[in-house]
Amino acid sequence: MIVARTIVKAFKAIEKAEGAGAKVRRSVGTSQLKNFSPFLMLDHFSVGSEAGFPDHPHRGQETITYLLHGSIDHEDFAGHKGTIHPGDLQFMTAGRGIMHAEMPGKSSDGSPNVGLQLWVDLPKDLKFCEPRYRDLAAKEIPTVTVDNDKVFIKIISGTSHGVDSVRDLAYTPVWILDITMKPGARLEQPLPKGWNAFAYTLKGKTAFGADGEKRVGEFYNVVFEKEGDGVIAATDDNAEEDAHFIIIAGQPLDQPVIQYGPFVLNTEEQVYQAMLDYQTHSNGFERAKHWQSEIGKRMTGR
User: Fold this and answer.
1) What SUPFAM superfamilies does UniProt report for this protein, alphabetically (predicted)?
2) Residues annotated in a binding site for Fe cation
3) Cα separation of 273 and 279, whole Å?
4) Which CATH class is domain 7-250?
5) Given this model, what pLDDT does residue 169 score?
6) What global pTM score does this model have?
7) Which residues are 84's β-sheet partners?
8) How far apart are CA 59 and CA 95, in angstroms?
9) Residue-range domain boundaries for the chain
């Protein structure tokens, strides 16, 4: 038995428009949960082939994109390109500066492309590192089953029940576990002590806490206290469907967060400098001058 972390709050992510024609359910990065270090934003996105996120800049953070349905293309001014499909991930470190586009594929049945994008803060001594891009294919992600195969866990990063993830893909230490639970299942998931952690629910109903005191449906963010060994979750014996949720935990960063759109720095002066650098194509944004992504032309037509 682990000592379960208590629940600080649980709230439903509200859908809003974002990008060019996309819809997102944002939970981290709202008034309900702002600057939950090292996490800056969590978007549960749904985007059709006619919409997307054309050319735009970043500085000072990492983005982790986890696709649940469809396909998403990525292209940036450093020459990185990639396409992810269901179960795949993209990890992008903006560092001192990157300009990129993220555009959805076109599904045969016309259904939207759905996934999660998590923004993770960079430690202040890595804010101006060189940008980088990595991907992780679904087939590379180790899995484990527990509770007589009633709980299925994808270990994207971190450790679960003696199974480790393939490799660290972000500079800031983060655990990401994708969990599916059948009716009548119970999970005890240890987490690193002192790390901030939350669960985001995608499907079904899940009871969190030692006594199952917080029962939530889909699209809820459940925020946990730092104290305790980890998270306990359970499903009802008579549940009509499986529960599906993501547990995310990260090492807090002891630093100020000043954010202006896609720029996340430690001082206001650094944010002003980021805007100036982007406008003047300097100090990391040199390659933005005259650069235009090929995938972004799907929307611009140029």
Assistant:
1) RmlC-like cupins (SSF51182)
2) 56, 58, 100, 102
3) 10
4) mainly beta
5) 80
6) 0.95
7) 72
8) 5
9) 7-250
